[in-house]
Write a structure and sequence with these properties.
With 63 residues, this protein is mainly α. It has one domain. The protein is built from two helices and no strands. The chain has helices at residues 4-26, 33-58. The longest helix has 26 residues, at 33-58.
Amino acid sequence: MKDKQELKDEQKFYLKTCKEYEEQRDKQDCKSQEWHKYDRLAQLCKERADDIRHKLYEMRCTD
């Protein structure tokens, strides 16, 4: 099982990656396949970061 710091680092990575995908998505035409690809990738990263946030909360690590 990962420790709290590893989870925090992983969460930070997913949030950063989500932001990068959102920026790429915003550069695309909203009807293009690329826009949908980046939107989905951003959504997946955000979901993973939320999962990690819940794990950290369960570990009583809210800072």
